Amino acid sequence: MEVLLDVKERMSILKNFYDEVRVVDPINNIVFSDDFNLKINNKFNEKDCSLSNCYDVWGKKSICSTCISKKAYLKNDTFIKLEYNKNHVFLVIASPIEFNENKYVVEILKDITNNGSIVDGSGEGNYLDLTMKKMGENLIKDYLTGVYNKRYIDQRFSKEAHRNLKESIPTTVIMTDIDSFKKVNDTYGHLVGDKILRGFAKVLNNNIRENSDWIGRYGGEEFIIVLNNTNLKNGVKVAEKLRKIIEKMSFDYGDLSLKITSSFGVCEVSEKEDPFDTIKNADEKLYMAKMTGRNKTVF
């Protein structure tokens, strides 16, 4: 129950976005929740606010064929689907968390029965189409580039870095931005600038490891890349690889074909400093790269 209270406290600012939040313990097959409106089949334990099975809330007798909590737990990522409870349709978002060194999955449930969405009436949960998926992604994704936003960076990075330090796993941070981006905006306009930003983010995202690394838009044309299980030496290699890819590319917009360059600052997380100081230090390295000629990597 303690983990549920902690999650609800942290999510209080989003209380208008969901009807219920519950915490799933996949290992012990327990669900913690305190919203009585969704409890069915009389399997709710008032003493510890738990259900005997996560699928009890849907009135099912076995695990859902489209279970996203298990998927979120195993793949350490966020998943979204539609689920049904009698005459109601719910948007379900499942995302992994850590609490007191134990791993759980937070499920956010939103009743979307009357919001005009078109859903399949088969009675089975279906993965969302792109439109529905954006409802959840808007909470953590940058609207322009599609990579993670500043809110997500602030929430994930520190916890991930501390966990890696505890397990003696190296973490390297890359800060990067587009050289002379203001000149691009001033010369060609913001529509072209936005196109460049989207293309830049896509190139970065497509050239890091999908299952361990991640990228976020830190602000403006500046991006952060977090490389898990990567030391400084290998992090510099990644930055240089990205820099050379960008340098050789052309970004097309109508009849325009533009060449850009980018600068990089690289630092490894150290137990001697706060993880966010690593971001600050990498940002300072990026500034040095720009002040000493641009289109280079400083570490």
UniProtKB/TrEMBL annotation:
Tell me the GO molecular function terms: diguanylate cyclase activity
Superkingdom to which the source organism belongs? Bacteria
Pfam families, per this entry?
GGDEF (PF00990)
| Stored NCBIfam families | GGDEF
Q: What is this protein called?
A: GGDEF domain protein
Please report the organism this UniProt entry assigns to the protein: Clostridium perfringens B str. ATCC 3626
Q: Which CDD domains match?
A: GGDEF
Offer a single GO CC term for the protein.
plasma membrane
Single Gene Ontology BP annotation: negative regulation of bacterial-type flagellum-dependent cell motility
Q: PANTHER family from the xrefs?
A: DIGUANYLATE CYCLASE DGCM-RELATED, REGULATORY COMPONENTS OF SENSORY TRANSDUCTION SYSTEM
Q: Which Gene3D superfamilies match?
A: 3.30.70.270
Q: Which residues form the GGDEF domain?
A: 169-299
Fetch the InterPro entries from UniProt.
Diguanylate_Cyclase (IPR050469), GGDEF_dom (IPR000160), Nucleotide_cyclase (IPR029787), Rev_trsase/Diguanyl_cyclase (IPR043128)
